[in-house]
User: Fold this.
Amino acid sequence: MEEKKNILTYEGLRKYEEELEQLKVIRRQEVAEKIKEARAQGDLSENAEYDAAKDEQRDIEARIEELEKILKNAEVVVEDEVDLDTINIGCRVRVLDITEDEELEYKIVGSTEANSLQGKISNESPVGKALIGAKKGETISVELPAGVFKYKVLGIERSNG
Assistant:
């Protein structure tokens, strides 16, 4: 079975690469030092510092593995080439939530990068899925747990601009 591609913006790719580098170069070394210090204290069976350092090491290695998998299957959206006639991954979109009468701005990203607190919504989320392919001036309906919401597309622009 082919693994799912991780659609990333260039910004997302860079962020993951930097985190991976930080974990491999700096954090691994720090944890190795903590383990070494804890070992020097003697009996490992009741050594909380040793156990904590080993847990931290396990978490770091798991995150490194996760990041390497994300990057191995990454497909980068070239934001400069995004078509601004229709909404797609890698663009920033302004919409009017007709239901709530409020203007919202979203950046459409792949599911790996999604972060609603930063206004980054996944192309696989209900709102993201409904917006993909819409044009400026169009109104779309999205069925959400709270009911059906209508959004009017006010503007589409490059997210890196």
